[in-house]
Specification:
This protein is an alpha/beta fold. Helices cover 26% and strands 9% of the residues. The chain is built from three helices and five strands; from the N terminus they run ββαβαββα. The relative contact order is 0.14. This is LRMDA protein.
């Protein structure tokens, strides 16, 4: 087990059998690029700078789907991309659920997202409507 606070993920590719990676509080953004980590099942990116600006979050999620195919647990709490009514008064549970559908549409192997288990109903909804859920509700 190694604990590193970093701004660069250079050298991570040497840990190809890595199973868990905690990158909380590292100022990482949507331009995050991980090497292929086929055994990684847990990734936490809490309290970074990941947002839904333009298409960049979609690109990040597509990248994660490609380079961490075994990913089962992802946490994005504390990022702008993860709407949370405790952090932002304008956000509510519906915003959070739309975010979940969008992430689950992109990362179909997830069993847990943030602190909640992925339900069968959520997975079904994500397949049907997930691609359209990144759209913010009108004010």
């Amino acid at each position: 087990v190694a604990f590193v606070v970093c701004r660069s993920l250079e050298g991570l590719k040497t840990f190809s059998y890595l199973e868990e990676l905690i990158l909380d509080n590292n100022l990482l953004g949507n331009d995050l690029l991980l090497p292929r980590l086929p055994h990684l099942h847990t990734l936490t990116l809490n309290k970074n700078q990941i947002s839904f600006q333009r298409n960049t979050c979609k690109i990040l999620l597509d990248h994660l789907a490609e380079v961490v195919p075994s990913l089962q647990y992802l946490s994005l709490l504390g990022n702008i991309a993860c709407p949370n009514e405790l952090v932002c008064k304008e956000k509510d549970e519906d915003d959070y659920q739309r975010y979940r559908y969008f992430v689950l549409h992109k990362l179909t192997s997830l069993k847990f997202l943030d602190t909640r288990k992925v339900t069968r109903r959520e997975r079904e909804e994500a397949l049907i409507r997930g691609a359209f859920m990144k759209v913010v509700k009108p004010k």
